[in-house]
Specification:
2 domains, TIM Barrel, single chain, 40% helix
Length: 532
C-alpha cells in the first residue's frame, strides 16, 4: 500500500464528486468531505513537526488516534509495556515530552511496581540543596593530553552516517552545537553533515579506519592527522567492540553505498565496505597502547581513548597491565553495555553475547582502581541511558559521564518501528531514501535534541539536590538502593562496591576473583598465563 494512497484517493474522489455535482446537488457534501481530506493531506506533507504525517499524510492520523485511546483500553487488554517492546512506551513518552518542552509531570504517583524485586531508587536528604546550574561538566584528558576537553556529562552516543540519514545526523549535531555537548560520529567517519552542524565531535575509529585509511584498508597517519586537526574534533575514540554485537565485524554492500557515504568513509564506489572484527593495526595489549599513543601524538595532544563491551575480563586486565608497562595511559574508556542498540545485529549476538552495562562498568572501574590508574582515566557509560535516574545510577557505580543513542534518536522522532535495516524507516531517521528522510525537518528536530539534553540535565540537577549533593559526580553506590525480595533491600555498595585503591598491585585477595584474573593477564599478549 502506497504511503500516499489515502491522499491520492482523496484527490481523485474530490474530482469525481465535483463531476457528480452536474447530476445531483447533494454531492456538494462529498465534495466538502474529500476536499477537506485533501487539504489535510497537503498540510501533513508540508508541516514540520510530525515526521509520521510528512511520510504518511492522512493515514498517519490513525496512529495518533490509537495512541490517544490506548490508556483507556490498556487495562482491558492486560498489556505489559516491558514485554511487548524492547523499550517501554513510558520511557519513550518521557523523552518525547522533554524533547518537545512539554509538561512531564504525572498524577497518581509512581508508574513503577515498587514492591517488585529489582526496583531501584536514589536515597534523598532531609536537607536538600537547590542547584541553580545544570551545565554539568567533566574534564577529559590525562597527564599526557595537551588539549583536554570539558565534556558534558550527557552526550550523543555513536551512530554512523549511513545507518543514520543525512537529516538525522545534521539534526543531532546542530542540537549538540546549540547545547554545548558532544556528538560521537560512530565508525562511519566524519560526514559533511557533521561538519555542517558545527557541534563538538568525538571521532570514532573502528577497525575500518574510515576517513583515515589507505585503499587497502590500513591506517593512514597523514589522513588521520589532517582529520584530527579539525577544531570540531574534541576527542578520538578507538572502537574495539559495541554492546549490540561485540566481536562481530560488518559488511556494507556496494549497493547501499552512496557517493556521500563513500566520501565520509573514504572508500571507493562499487565495492563492498568491510569492517573487520579485529583491528589490523595491533594484536597485543602493548601494541594497542602504542597505537593510542600514536593517535594522541598525531592529533596534537587531543584526548584519546577506547570503547568496548567487556568480554573476557582478563583481556581488559591485559590492557591495564600494558598501560602500566608502557606508561601510555588512555585519557578515557567508554564502557558499552550489551543492551546497547544497533541498526542490525544477529539475534544471538543481540541477546547472548557481551556483558551488560552495570556489570561491565563496575568491573572496569574496580580494575582501574586496583591498578592505581582510576584517577588518570575518565570512564563513559553507554547503553539505554535515557533519564536522569539512569545517569545518576551510572555515575554512582563509577562512570564520569554517560552517552545515549536511543534517547536522542527518540528526540528526533524515532518511533521504534525496528525497520532500521530495511531502508524503510517511516520517520526518516534510519534511511538513505531521500523521500523518506525529508520527513525529518532539521531545524525542528535539532531544537528537540537541544531541549531533551537541557531538560534531562535540569531533572538531574533536581535529583542531585534532593540527595543533598552539589554535583552528579558526587553520587556513590550507597546512594542507590535496590529491592531484592518482598521485604529485603540492599545498597549499591553491597552489590557493586568500590574496591580498594591499588589492591591488585599489592596482591590482595578479593572475593570477586579480580586477583585471580589479574595474575593470568599479561601485557604482551591477550592469551592467558597458565597457572598451575
Amino acid at each position: 500500500m502506497s504511503r500516499y494512497s489515502l491522499l491520492y484517493a482523496s484527490v481523485a474522489l474530490t474530482l469525481l464528486s465535483l463531476i457528480a455535482l452536474f447530476w445531483s446537488g447533494w454531492m456538494i457534501l462529498f465534495v466538502a468531505l474529500f476536499a477537506a481530506l485533501t487539504a489535510l493531506g497537503i498540510y501533513d506533507l508540508t508541516q514540520p513537526s510530525h515526521s509520521i504525517l510528512r511520510n504518511y499524510p492522512i493515514m498517519g492520523h490513525l496512529r495518533f488516534l490509537f495512541e490517544g485511546i490506548r490508556p483507556e483500553i490498556r487495562q482491558y487488554l492486560m498489556e505489559s509495556d516491558q514485554d511487548e517492546e524492547p523499550f517501554s512506551r513510558d520511557q519513550r513518552s518521557l523523552i518525547y515530552q522533554r524533547a518537545k518542552g512539554v509538561e512531564d509531570k504525572r498524577p497518581f504517583g509512581t508508574q513503577q511496581r515498587v514492591y517488585d524485586s529489582g526496583y531501584e531508587w536514589i536515597t534523598h536528604s532531609i536537607v536538600p540543596k537547590h542547584l541553580t546550574d545544570h551545565d554539568f561538566r567533566v574534564r577529559v584528558g590525562g597527564p599526557d593530553c595537551k588539549a583536554p576537553y570539558e565534556a558534558s556529562i550527557y552526550n550523543i552516543s555513536a551512530m554512523s552516517f549511513g545507518s543514520m540519514s543525512a537529516n538525522a545526523i545534521l539534526a543531532l549535531n546542530t542540537g549538540a552545537q546549540k547545547g554545548g555537548f558532544a556528538h560521537d560520529t560512530g565508525e562511519g567517519g566524519i560526514s559533511r553533515y557533521h561538519r555542517e552542524g558545527g557541534g563538538d565531535l568525538i571521532w570514532q575509529l573502528g577497525s575500518g579506519y574510515f576517513g583515515c585509511r589507505t585503499h587497502e584498508g590500513a591506517f593512514d597517519v597523514d589522513k588521520f592527522t589532517q582529520q584530527a586537526s579539525n577544531p570540531q574534533v574534541k576527542m578520538i575514540e578507538v572502537k574495539l567492540s559495541q554492546g549490540a554485537k561485540p566481536g562481530h565485524g560488518g559488511v556494507l554492500p556496494a549497493s547501499k553505498i552512496t557517493p556521500e557515504i563513500a566520501e565520509a568513509r573514504d572508500i571507493p564506489m562499487g565495492q563492498d565496505c568491510v569492517s573487520p572484527a579485529a583491528h589490523p593495526e595491533f594484536s597485543t595489549p602493548i601494541e594497542m597502547m602504542q597505537f593510542i599513543g600514536k593517535l594522541r601524538e598525531n592529533s596534537h595532544g587531543k584526548p584519546v581513548g577506547f570503547k568496548l563491551c567487556i568480554g573476557h575480563r582478563r583481556e581488559f586486565m591485559c590492557m591495564v597491565k600494558a598501560m602500566l608497562e608502557t606508561k601510555i595511559v588512555p585519557d578515557f574508556i567508554v564502557i558499552d553495555g550489551k543492551e546497547g542498540g544497533t541498526g542490525a545485529a544477529p539475534l544471538e549476538f543481540a541477546n547472548h553475547v557481551g556483558m551488560p552495562l552495570v556489570e561491565g562498568l563496575t568491573f572496569a572501574h574496580n580494575t582501574l582502581r586496583g591498578a592505581g590508574l582510576r584517577d588518570q582515566i575518565k570512564i563513559g557509560a553507554s547503553g539505554k541511558i535515557v533519564s536522569s535516574f539512569d545517569i545518576s545510577k551510572m555515575l554512582a557505580l563509577g562512570a564520569d559521564w554517560a552517552n545515549s543513542a536511543r534517547g536522542y534518536m527518540f528526540a528526533i522522532g524515532c518511533i521504534q518501528a525496528q525497520a532500521c535495516h530495511t531502508n524503510h524507516c517511516p520517520v526518516g531517521v534510519a534511511t538513505q531514501d531521500p523521500m523518506r528522510q525529508r520527513a525529518l525537518v532539521v531545524p525542528d528536530k535539532a531544537e528537540r535534541v537541544y531541549r531533551f539534553h537541557t531538560n534531562t540535565l535540569k531533572a538531574l540537577a533536581e535529583m542531585t539536590g534532593a540527595a543533598g549533593l552539589s554535583h552528579p559526580n558526587d553520587f556513590r553506590p550507597h546512594h542507590l538502593l535496590m529491592r531484592e525480595g518482598d521485604r529485603n533491600m540492599v545498597t549499591g555498595q553491597e552489590v557493586y562496591p568500590y574496591l580498594a585503591e591499588e589492591f591488585l598491585l599489592r596482591d590482595e585477595e578479593d572475593e570477586y576473583g579480580y586477583l585471580m584474573r589479574w595474575n593470568r593477564a599479561r601485557a604482551d599478549s591477550f592469551e592467558p598465563i597458565d597457572i598451575e
